[in-house]
Amino acid sequence: MPADQAPPRLSAAFHRFWAGSLASNLADGVMLTALPLLAVALTDDPLAVAGLTAARYLPWLLFGLVGGALVDRVDRGRAMVAANLLRAGAVAALAALVALDQAGVGWLYAVMFTVMCCEIVYDLSGRAMLPALAPGAVDRANGRLTASQETAQDFVGAPLAGFLFAVAAALPLAVNSGAYLLGALILMGLPSAARRPAAQAREAAGRGSLRADIGEGLRFVYGDRALRALVVFSTAVNLAAGAQAAVLVLVVRDHLGVPAPLFGVFLAVGAVGALTGALLAAGLAARVGRFAAVTGGYLLQAVCAVVVAAATGSPWIGAAAWAVLAGASAVAGVLSGGIVQQIVPSGLLGRVMSVRRMLGLGMVPVGALLGGLLARLDLRLPLLLGAVVFTLSTLAVLRHLRRAAARADLAERRARRESPDPD
């Protein structure tokens, strides 16, 4: 349901946060392109190269819940700055090793693992802090952040890394480290009221162990039926998305008939769809309501997956359907994340988001394995699996999603009435 009041302008504090995130997203895009390029330059073993993916997602499985408990205890702004400084140092050390011709695949694993451990703290701190930075305008803020992430990573960071790598292998890593450092410097100026609300500081002062904090977060998720349903739903759709993404290159090349040199163009078309969806998400929610927009986003992804599966030898149809799928995914992701951010108390947000992220990202490699097995039988099967999972999962949580969206609408209206005009 649209709110009864126009959304407030985004504050100067949010724009500082946004600028810091933009620099960090650029660094992520460079790193996620440069490390695989380094890996294939160092080894021809496919398993060794695939190990980078394991190093990327393993930290969420091992430390996701601990990270959520930490960011609910500490100054979230300082946590983001510290995470970026550590990432900058780790990547700078790898750049030095590469420049001295001393780097091996093991060092790539170590740096990827370290950077992604820091990413847990950075990502959860930012998501937990966002409602305080953009009261009453969470969807708009999330949409802007997602759009800038797509732009910085896919349209700037990835091609920049490829160009710099062609000049010198250590060069993209040096730029990567500098971008993390710039992000840390920008984030140092965030106001303390947004970094750690007073109520949260009082709660943290009386807490016991991290284990007790993690247990409290898990009990909160389990005890809230709507939230529990959304977390299970997110886990299922991430499994399906992982199955689709794992064999996308084969689907594009062998099923749709796109020449291998144009695979990057196909990915860019999808990135344009995601960028468009992120920018339109808040306006769509204001027009038709959060519940309708999120539900439509997930069901539209199912339809588009079927279209791609049916588009044998039709690259133009497949590319158009994939772009719409990516846009629908961005809409659903921005708005469903905003629902969780608005219905969970600030002092618990880090832990709740960590449960959601750990389970969701933990299913990506499982889905990738399942997608690979299905693709051995038929390349269309991972796409059709995704369509079935998205449809059935959405229908299964429809009632809970409606209730959660209504609670988010109420929280947003309350925030708009109570929030002062931004500076």
TrEMBL record:
The chain crosses the membrane at residues 17-42, 54-72, 79-100, 229-251, 263-284, 291-310, 316-337, 358-375, 381-398. PROSITE patterns: MFS. Its main location: membrane. It is found in: Cell membrane. Residues 226-423 form the Major facilitator superfamily (MFS) profile domain. InterPro entries: MFS_dom (IPR020846), MFS_trans_sf (IPR036259), TM_effector (IPR010290). It comes from the Bacteria. Gene3D superfamilies: MFS general substrate transporter like domains (1.20.1250.20). It is a multi-pass membrane protein. Keywords: Cell membrane, Membrane, Transmembrane, Transmembrane helix, Transport. SUPFAM superfamilies: MFS general substrate transporter (SSF103473). This is MFS transporter. It comes from Nocardiopsis changdeensis.
